[in-house]
User: What shape does this take?
Amino acid sequence: MIKEVLKMGDPKLLKPSEPITEFNTPFLKTLITDMHDTMAALNGAGLAAPQIGVGYQVVIFGVTHNPRYPEAEPVPYTVLINPELTPLSGEIEEDWEGCLSIPGMRGIVPRYKKLHYRGYDLDGTIIDRTCDGFHARVVQHETDHLLGILYPMRIRDLRLFGYTDTLFPGENVQDD
Ligand code: NI
Assistant: This one.
């Protein structure tokens, strides 16, 4: 079911999420289905459970061709539960990000370029991956939601934060 996405200003987005302790439950299946339906309806690259008001450590992400990120490299569709991230170097990359909880805006956000992540899928099977670039950016953005962190809180130069249609006039970057 498509759910309402909470917007920045809602205190639920600032609260750290609880870990999942039981896998493959009806609760978890319904949550993941709702997240999938909501992300697909909005062409999101990712979604975290607290964005639909559920305070558990569940994120989904994936990009094939996304009109919101037309130049982004593909990211495999992934359900990631209780994620743990480990940066693999100190190297930082800055690039544009948006968020379904902050519609119509983009900002330049620093992220680790390369990282390792570990977590579980719906069945409790371990996911263990190394990634870089846009994939690493998406994982960091979504995991931040589980810590109560929204991307504007990471922006180093707030002059590089603004409205999508003003930042990219005529480029037909989809408005959130
Ligand atoms: Ni977001």
User: Anything to note?
Assistant: The domain at 11-167 is CATH 3.90.45.10 (Peptide Deformylase). Residues 119 and 127 are 5 Å apart (CA to CA). The beta strands are 46-48, 58-63, 75-87, 92-97, 105-112, 114-120, 126-132, 161-163. The radius of gyration is 15 Å.
